[in-house]
Amino acid sequence: MNKFTPLDAHEEKTMQHFIFYRWCFLYFCLQSIFVTAAPLGGNFSLTNTEGKSVALQDYAGQVVLLTFGFLSCPDICPTTLTELKQVINALPATQRDKVTVLFITVDPERDTAEKLKTYLQYFSPNFVGLRGSVAEIRNVCKQYGTSFRYLPKTEQGYSVEHASQLFIIDSTGKLVRLMPYGTPREIVVQYVAGLIH
Ligand SMILES: [Cu+2]
């Protein structure tokens, strides 16, 4: 059959069916991608600096400000932790104990529980440091849509590339917002205050 021959009624119907089913197939494929993609965040368990197992759900009722970092980080981590201390201080006194800062080390080999505890206390005695095996920490990072990478060793030792955002988790344990590093303090304070009930 010449390809320019007009389609007869039967062929036309078959063609229409074909197009219809092809769209249906595409629709279901796309839908399954978007609907089944698990939302970022969720519960996880790691170990605190007292050696106790801690789960995110232990902080139900609290707004959690989650960050990933490591103690020998020259800039991002100390700046973030200083900023978080200021954020908490900027909240009304009655709201401050409704917010928990969790700092997960991505360098558990060098960041021992004791070093982590001492380091965080420098910023605030209320900041919670969490550790685990590299694999456990990688899983939490993956769950939160991020990762980290050990950079080649230099004379100063190795550095770790890690997420710089602040992960904001509401009082039901749901990841509700990612704030980029450097977000003005007022914006963070306002957003966090809005989550406190
Ligand atoms: Cu850092």
TrEMBL record:
Lineage: Bacteria, Pseudomonadati, Pseudomonadota, Gammaproteobacteria, Thiotrichales
GO terms for MF: metal ion binding
Positions of Cu cation binding: 73, 77, 162
Organism of provenance: Beggiatoa leptomitoformis
Domain Thioredoxin: 35-197
Domain of life of the organism encoding this protein: Bacteria
Protein name (database record): Redoxin domain-containing protein
Family listed: Belongs to the SCO1/2 family.
Disulfide pattern: 73-77
Keywords tagged on the record: Copper, Disulfide bond, Membrane, Metal-binding, Transmembrane, Transmembrane helix
InterPro entries in the record: SCO1/SenC, Thioredoxin-like_sf, Thioredoxin_domain
Sequence intervals crossing the membrane: 20-40
